[in-house]
Design a protein that fits this description.
Length: 152
């Protein structure tokens, strides 16, 4: 038999964040904060009835921006909300009322202003170099994970 030593969750989280920081020194957020933002994105997406593929696209946009080092503590919520909004607009044929509902949910969940979100949407679009249509290979891993989480 093997004995696995017990590690406090807080210590595990700290080690994970330190390892992430060593691997990606240019990223200004911790791994746990990035995961937390993605969890919030998923919750809003599911609340608004977005398909898992749409949420997966938002995750890809978000991760691209994270890897570019464009996120910091001050704008992290705006960026994640704008990613969901862009993904919803590009992959779904949302009616005007559905877009309004999504913006209301994003505003409520991320505690951001509608005006900032709308203006930030274009900034994110430019940062992503207008490349909103993604290859299947980039979206599929996120999609699979989301579908598995829904089944549990």
């Amino acid at each position: 038999t093997t004995v696995i030593e017990y590690v406090k969750p807080s210590d595990l989280k700290k080690d994970m964040n330190e390892t992430f920081k060593e691997k990606f020194p240019h990223i200004k957020l911790t791994l746990s904060k990035i995961r937390s933002l993605k969890r919030e994105m998923r919750i809003v997406g599911e609340d608004c009835g977005l398909q898992p593929v749409t949420i997966a696209m938002a995750f890809v946009y978000f991760e691209k921006l994270v890897l570019q080092g464009r996120l910091n503590k001050q704008i992290r919520k705006l960026v994640s909300a704008a990613c969901i909004l862009l993904a919803a607009k590009i992959s779904s044929d949302l009616k005007k009322q559905e877009v309004k509902h999504l913006i209301d949910k994003l505003e409520e969940r991320f505690r951001i202003s509608r005006r900032e979100l709308i203006s930030f949407e274009f900034i994110i679009l430019v940062a992503l170099e207008m490349a909103l249509y993604l290859p299947e290979s980039k979206v599929l891993p996120h999609y699979r994970r989301l579908v598995q989480q829904q089944q549990v």
